[in-house]
Amino acid sequence: MGELDNTVAVITGAARGQGRSHAVALAEQGADIIAVDICADIDAIPYPLGTKADLEETARLVEATGRRAAPVVADVRDLQQLAAAVRGGIDELGDIDIVVANAGVVAIGNDETDNEPVFTSIVDTNLKGVWHTLLATVPSMVRKGRGGSIVMVSSSQGLTGRGGDGSAAMFGYAASKHGVVGLMRSAANAYAPHKIRVNSVHPAGVATPMIINDFVVNRMLENPNPAVAQMLLPDVPLVEAQDVTEAVLWLVSPRARYVTGVSIPVDAGHIVM
């Protein structure tokens, strides 16, 4: 038996990276997974995003644990599209207990100061997309009537301004990830009467395709920003997706039943430097 038996979880950005790690780990603990991903690139974001094949692989890995998976394609920036996709998952798996709002983008290394499409794409995905996720999922949690847990995946850049370089990319990323904290705290208050807990996790750089791609690696080699990468603990260039997943697992589990409205760094000391 798992800690999450007989639950249904929605995970956005589930095609690969952190989202896939969260999906498989929650399934191993007994949750059925509605796995959401855009499965397409965003013009202003300078690296390839997850694909339909990636999302199908996540679903296969979930099903290999013995749990059910409902992979659905939706852009979190589009509320109607996201809500329709989530409804499809609910029709297949049932009402929702857990939400992991994980979808996010970055454009580290793009040093243009006035690139409005980059700024807008980042904020619309990382902040508005989390709000849309709440709108698309919380009514189902309330209807189910047994409470639940929402985890918003922010960033260490949601707790510090270190590494700011004046670029539209870094301004958009830091602003959006700080905004997630405000959204989380407000939602924790709003949904408490329904016994829905809301928290955020704040990773430093994670070893996923969001960071490990040709654009980011090449730009960081050309113009390194030590303040972005430097961490307090030695020999930790990047944290692993599983490290973030462990925090997510705890927050959605009964072990954290009285934990709500908190921000948990998983950053090897990045924000205390």
TrEMBL record:
Q: Which UniProt keywords apply?
A: NAD, Oxidoreductase
Family matches, as Pfam families: adh_short (PF00106)
InterPro entries assigned: NAD(P)-bd_dom_sf, SDR_fam, SDR_subfam_1
User: CDD domains recorded for this chain?
Assistant: SDR_c (cd05233)
Xref: SUPFAM superfamilies: NAD(P)-binding Rossmann-fold domains
Molecular functions (GO terms) = oxidoreductase activity
Entry keyword NAD: yes
Per the similarity annotation, which family is this? Answer: Belongs to the short-chain dehydrogenases/reductases (SDR) family.
Q: Which PANTHER family match?
A: DEHYDROGENASES, SHORT CHAIN, ESTRADIOL 17-BETA-DEHYDROGENASE 8-RELATED
For this entry, the protein name equals 3-ketoacyl-ACP reductase
Whose protein is this, by species?
Mycobacterium sherrisii
